[in-house]
Amino acid sequence: MSASSHMIEPPAPTVNPEALQALHSKVLGDCNAGIGGLLAFMGDKLGLFRLLADAGPLTTTEVAERAGVNERLVREWLSAVAAAGYVTYEPDGERFGVTPEQAVVFAAEGHPAFLQGPLDLIYSLYHDEPKLRDAFRHGRGMPWGDHNACLFCSAERFFGPLYRASILGEWLPAIDGVIETLRGGADVADVGCGLGTSTLIMAGAFPESRFAGFDNHAGSIDSARQAAAKAGLTDRVRFEPASAKQYAGEFDLICFFDSLHDMGDPVGAAAHTKKRLKPGGVVMLVEPYAEDRLEDNLSSARAPVSRFFYAASTLACVPGSQAQEVGRALGAQAGPRQLMAVLQEAGFGRVRVATQTAMNLVVEARV
């Protein structure tokens, strides 16, 4: 008899029935959330939430007629989103509608609490799953430009409402003296500007200043230029395709809005930024809020936001950084210690957290 036949198999782990039930219920809830997100995505694209917000409560026949959709399918959709708590149902009259809160979350485009942008982002990332699975295997990352094109617009739809609510009212005022500088006339760079939303928000508020947006994704720059023309701001706004280590010019304020952690070489980008600052200039770094320790981000208070940012970071931010030179891959939950270390390593002598909210950290850096 071989020696292996005498080996004793380790006992099977004992399953705790209560813990199993709790985990099973949680995953089932996530399954409901996942399919509910798809239903909400479809309702947005078909205009159903906006219809209910504007004209509800309505019967399924009224919804079908006004939206131009099939009554039987929309009846099932309404039943599903009512079960999810996304719309209301009135048995007396068999009508569906939305509460004011549901209208804000699903139909109020541009409101800070509007969540169709994140749902768009999730939908776009599902399309990229085969590429992302390959990235896990080869470790070379996935460039931003290789993502499904839906991602670019969904990112703007996600971040845009937050930027409109926060840039002028919270973030810029937290940077010492910058509001006065902008009112007097300053040169401003927005590095990693994407579709240009953050740049245009600032340009619209400070007509005496001049703004330049830089991004290495040419398609985003084209869209940003169109947005600037539509807003009538081309006299003081320009958008140029350039990486964070290549853009030219001298600036009083250089901003990074949710972009530094996506860069392959954030230290190199910050060092280049230091060279592009005028004497007395300042850097404003805006990043997703995170604590420095993973266990703190997993706490019950932080988990809902951290869970989303870690997931998005897994599917977009980290592979995007890995696809670039250096590939430092800070991730969207880097935390203040890592972010400030990057700036200090790049040569900034005065670095501080200027403000923080439930969603964002704002860091100020000066030479």
What does this structure look like?
The N and C termini lie far apart (about 75 Å). It contains 15 helices and nine strands. About 50% of the residues lie in helices and about 15% in strands. A hairpin with a 3-residue loop joins strand 8 and strand 9. The mean pLDDT is about 95. The chain has a seven-stranded mixed sheet with strand order 5-4-3-6-7-9-8, with helices on both faces. Helix 2 packs antiparallel against helix 5, helix 3 crosses helix 4 (about 70-85) and helix 6 (about 115-125) runs antiparallel to helix 8 (about 150-170). The chain folds into two domains: about 15-110, Arc Repressor Mutant, subunit A (Orthogonal Bundle); about 120-365, Rossmann fold, CATH 3.40.50. The relative contact order is 0.09. By secondary structure, the protein is α/β, with parallel strands linked by helices.
The proportion of residues in beta strands is 5-15%
Structural class: alpha/beta
CATH superfamily caption of the largest domain:
Vaccinia Virus protein VP39
Major β-sheet, in short?
A: 7 strands, mixed
What would the average pLDDT be, to the nearest integer?
95
Q: How much helix, percentage-wise, in residues?
A: 40-55%
Count of discrete alpha- or pi-helical segments spanning 4 or more residues? 15
- Based on CA inertia axes, which overall geometry fits? globular
* Distance from first to last alpha carbon: 75 Å
